[in-house]
Amino acid sequence: MKTxxxxxxxxxxxxxxxxxxxxxxxxxxxxxxxxxxGVCHSDLHTARNDWGWSYYPIVPGHEIVGRVTSIGKGVTRxxxxxxxxxxxxVDSCQECDQCKKGEEQLCREGNTGTYAGYDRFTKEPTxxxxxxxxxxxxxxxxxxxxxxxxxxAAPLLCAGITTWSPLKxxxxxxxxxxxVIGLGGxxxxxxxxxxxxxxxxxxxxxxxxxxxxxxxxxxxxxxxxADSDAMAQAHDHFDLIIDTVPVRHDIxxxxxxLDVDGTLVLVGQVGPMEExxxxxxxxxxxxxxxxxxxxxxxxxxxxxxCAEKNIxxxxxxxxxxxxxxxxxxMEKADxxxxxxxxxxxxxxxxxx
Length: 352
Ligand SMILES: [Zn+2]
Ligand SMILES: [Zn+2]
What we know:
This is Zn-dependent alcohol dehydrogenase. The chain is an alpha/beta fold. Helices cover 22% and strands 26% of the residues. It has helices at 41-47, 97-100, 150-153, 159-169, 185-196, 211-217, 228-233, 279-283, 296-309, 323-331, and strands at 2-7, 16-21, 29-39, 64-71, 83-86, 89-91, 112-113, 133-137, 142-143, 177-181, 200-205, 221-224, 238-243, 258-266, 287-290, 315-318, 338-342. It starts with a strand and ends in a 10-residue tail after the last strand.
């Protein structure tokens, strides 16, 4: 199937139109027309090869909402016209202990990325959601629940699940004390989801510039990390801190904020971090952890939870041809809080 998208052709050049082939349907495949695609920081890092594993051309995008246009003959869960979604992975071995537990993101053989991955059968590079069509095996296709705003829901597929999974892993429930560091695409979802689970949520930020935003998102308060008195008063306060800061930084000042056995979980920065002091870690039996996206079952659970509680990301809709400007604005953190591409702005190729 011929389709169109926007691809990076080079780490330094702007994204530009790209015509390419999606694979023919296998028995367990679902084909969809993409309606909306969120714009994640990983898209930008991949377009620029910041992590060293990009190929070119590469079509980013892993916050995908679409409508089923055809199905393979073995597909049982979806039918034509269903609203569906795809997140950060499109395949895994399905056999290992992690896959069997529904933790495909931790597959022993590695999951297959929606982009910057290689098809398990053909070894062809995968291409993401900045495109008109997608083909995916049904096990990695999510169902969009009735009533969830399709245009705004796209960022749930990465920003949503990336923050939902640690909230569930560390058993956040009514009364849990949760801190969120950084108030961008991931951070604003961490606040909304933790509030939805009944937690008492504090945003930790360098200044009080985002205080009104934090409160509006449902946080109980904003803690200014530059205010040493306020930080000292908040010692031993949190059961869980979700650190969404997407760049190298020092976590030492945040560790004393954790209660005994509390965990600071990193979900933003991929790569080296500043050295940190182990004293507060050892003395409080505190933990530092990382967490990557979440499994398929957990992602469906998160979508259903968001539909039930009417939790949606705050989005700014853009056209496909505005993506380069959106990348520039994202680098300056000039977005509240996620760009979503309206794929109706991209014309389908004449041959489809
Ligand atoms: Zn992402
Ligand atoms: Zn596996």
